[in-house]
Amino acid sequence: MTVLVLLRRVRQLLARLAAEEPEPGTPEPEPWLAALRLRG
Question: According to the lineage, what is the superkingdom (predicted)?
Answer without folding.
Answer: Bacteria
